[in-house]
Each structure stands twice: as C-alpha cells, then as structure tokens.
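JOB MANIFEST
job_type = single_chain_structure
chain_count = 1
residues = 191
[input]
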Amino acid sequence: IGIDNFEYGYAIAKNAAEWINENLADLEEVKVGVCNYPDYPFLVVREEGILAALEEISPNAKVVVSAKAGYTPEGVDVGDAWVQSNPDLNVVVGINDAGVLGVYEAFKSAGIERDDLAMFGGDAVDDALTALKDGGAFKATVSTNMLKHANMFVDMSIELAQKGELENREVFFPLLPITAENVDEYMESLE
C-alpha cells in the first residue's frame, strides 16, 4: 500500500513541465533547480521520475543546479545559496513540498518574485496549499490522498486476517495534481 515513487516524481515534474510549456515555451533554455534527498533509495527513484518527466514533456528544461532539501530549513539554506548562485532560475521542482517551500521562502525574502519563476512540490501539506492560495511562485503540489483512502489499510488488513492472503497485493494511492484552480475544492474535500 503506498505510492509508486517514480510515478509520484513524474507527476510532480509533469506539473512543472506543463507550466514551462504554457509559459516559457519560447525560451531556448529554461533553468531548473531540483530539490532532492539522496539519503533514501525511494527518494532517489522519485527524483528519477522528476528528471524523466522534465526530459520527456519539456525538452527546453535544463537542470542547472540540484541540492539536498527534503525539509524546510534545508530548503531555506539551499534557496539562500541559489539566490546567490542562480537568481535567474525559472523553475524549482522537488521530491516534496517542504524543501521547495524553503526555497520559495528564501527567494521571496530576497525579493525575487517574477512571472517566469515557478515552484512545484508534492505531498499537499498545509503550507503548500496556503502558498497556492496566495498566488505566488509556488504553482502546484501533488496529493497522494493517503488519508482519504485510509480505509484501504483497514480493508486489506481484514482480508489478510480472514483469508490469510490478499487477492490484490499492491494498491497505489491515486495521485492528484493541485493548483490554484482546484485548491479550494481539494481543501473542502478534506473536511
């Protein structure tokens, strides 16, 4: 029970690539920063999904910098460094919301808010949903809807207890892109 991390990374970067195609298609090179977290193999797989989506969907996207940023404080530190080394980044995409939100805060604090700057994460944490509603550079997140589908855990546990085996051994949560257009609807669905 869970997510396919390659597909999850792909979904995160699909949001970014589609935004690039809609907003920066005329640029020869779109400068991308990637927040990764190489300490855990499943997050390396998620990063591979991110890179694959960028390459397949938006050929003018070029990763010019990447750094470990899975938590907001790490993201702030990475963002501060990128403000100095790569203030002209167009896109920041990461393995989760927390690291990207740190980069977002660093860029905002430095006064870097441009129409050609967008950031994308995953997990649909409260701060990401708030950032989406604020309408700044944070453009999209992806929800696994894990809590909404918690009944799957219970149902599979009961089936295993009753039958001693599971008919369907793998269940992946549906991935839902969340943008400013559907954030209110998504938040209402959580109530």
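[summary]
Residues 77 and 153 are 37 Å apart (CA to CA).
The first strand starts at residue 30 and ends at 36.
exit_status = 0
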